[in-house]
């Protein structure tokens, strides 16, 4: 295609996308990101906020992976940042990462290790000292499993409210771990609707890195994009997770003849590119579990330009309608439940169970005070999604998991 023709094509496509996607930078030229550079192999690197470190735009979310050879291949493919957590696979996930890196004889300074401390199962604990003790105990378990003296990025996992990360006992603990060089940077992860969290953290300036859930189903959400840009401008390093909308929205809502076209490479690469074309995101941690998925994600790491098929997918009217069934964890359904059930948590548990096939994370997500027991006793679900998430049906599918 000639350059002039290509410009006309992009301009036309941009008009369509602007109308359908609230003007978000789906077609923003990647060279506008002046912080992006390429290494000798062509992989795109970006700076992770005030940490100053350079990371490939594609990293590895290890949560669902159980094959050490996949981690080895990820390293050999150029991935240098591995995201795990104390809670994943009852600790076996961290054990696997530690063993693989040791077997590969990776120099510690050449890899970025991120892990998370999970505290939702200790919601009944009231004393700050007890919470701190639990936090540190789990952190030190992570160090031992990963066979390392320090963790580069340590997160408090699954934050939903600024009060959680602003608690003095937590900030003091992070500061102590930094001073003792047990961690390099402090952060938190969030699956909730996070604009308020990002802006609060950016203004306070304590947290270095935030791991957030973002995907194409949020393409109309200008508040989220503005919050990301604001936090990045303040020096917060932003890492994206849940980038490929790993829920069965396309199987549930797309016509049968379209599902085969959209369930594979085109869908996953288009969705990952859409996230990474936002200049505020330094890297993403897609949770690939196969060598084919690794190969597809690494292709994105060297080229963020859309193919014609990817553009067709992103602009397809049926796709945009189907995405309304993807839970964005916005919480707008909560006032409609008379039993105060935390519906976004249940939708995330459904995602782990039916999209990831991750039984352990499903059970862990359901282990907190989410109200699923009340759902099991309720005759009619009256909670409604502002989009098209089938709340009642998905709750009905996870109620059997209570036992």
The string of secondary-structure elements, in order, is HEEEEHEHEHEHHEHEHEHHHEHHHHHHH
- Helix vs. strand class: alpha/beta
Distance, first to last CA: 59 Å
Give average pLDDT, whole number. 86
Q: Work out the helicity level.
A: 40-55%
> Using DSSP, what is the number of strands?
11
Low-confidence stretches: 1-34
Count of alpha/pi helices: 18
Which descriptor suits the 3D outline?
globular
Strand content: 5-15%
Strand order of the largest sheet: 4-5-6-7-8-9-10-11
- Major sheet: size, sense and barrel closure? 8 strands, parallel
Which secondary structure elements does this structure contain, and how are they paired or packed?
Blueprint: H1 3-20, E1 37-38, E2 44-47, E3 54-56, E4 60-61, H2 68-77, E5 81-83, H3 92-103, E6 112-117, H4 128-146, E7 151-156, H5 162-165, H6 168-179, E8 183-190, H7 195-204, E9 209-213, H8 222-233, E10 237-241, H9 249-253, H10 256-262, H11 265-276, E11 281-284, H12 291-300, H13 308-315, H14 317-322, H15 343-356, H16 359-365, H17 372-377, H18 391-398
Parallel strand pairs: 4-5, 5-6, 6-7, 7-8, 8-9, 9-10, 10-11
Antiparallel strand pairs: 1-2, 2-3
Helix pairs in contact: 2-3, 2-12, 3-4, 7-8, 11-12, 11-13, 15-16, 15-18
